[in-house]
Amino acid sequence: ELSFAETKALFMARSEFKRLAKENTVVIGRKLTKCTQSCPLVVYNHVLNQIESFDNLIPFAVEALKYSSDLSRDAMAYCLVSQLKAKSDHKMKEGDTNYSQWFASLSKFIGVYYGRYPSTELKGLLFYLLRSFSEGQSLDLLVLKDLLVLMGGCD
């Protein structure tokens, strides 16, 4: 029964998120909120995967999430940390000195998301960043930079 609910929420989120545009963020945001009531982790992982691929969706996705509850926003904070942790080995392009496209997009989304919703739990992300810095992973400085610049409004 749980896997059916997850599959249904993911299907609804996929069908609604692919229609996301500037003109319909309110409608899509309300429909996404309905999806996140049952399975927020599944829906938010899909949203983050789409944002990693298409960074032009960031402002629309952040605006569409304004109807989500505080608990759902905290679930998004968990998904952000888990996405950063899961792909920690591939943050740089192979044989290059530039950041991967998914990492730069996710970092920008983190800054815009926390700038728009400052009441969202930030401790987990900061703890992850400090821990990765203490382990010598300086690539996560991009996340901290975007967080400070975009959340602080110094754009």
Helix and strand layout, with pairings?
Blueprint: H1 2-17, H2 25-38, H3 40-53, H4 58-64, H5 70-86, H6 101-116, H7 123-134, H8 141-152
Attribute tags:
single chain, 155 residues, 8 helices, mainly alpha
* Number of β-strand runs: 0
Low-confidence stretches: none
Counting helices, strands and paired strands, the structural category is: mainly alpha
**Through-space gap between termini:** 46 Å
Biggest beta sheet attributes: none
Order of helices and strands: HHHHHHHH
Please tell me the overall pLDDT: 86
Number of helices: 8
Oligomer: single chain
What do you see in this structure?
- It is a single chain.
- This protein has 155 residues and is mostly helical.
- The protein is built from 8 helices and no strands.
- The chain has helices at 2-17, 25-38, 40-53, 58-64, 70-86, 101-116, 123-134, 141-152.
- Helix 2 (25-38) packs across helix 3 and helix 3 (40-53) packs across helix 5.
- It is globular, with a radius of gyration of 15 Å.
- The N and C termini lie far apart (46 Å).
What's the quick description here?
The protein contains 8 helices and no strands. It has helices spanning 2-17, 25-38, 40-53, 58-64, 70-86, 101-116, 123-134, 141-152.
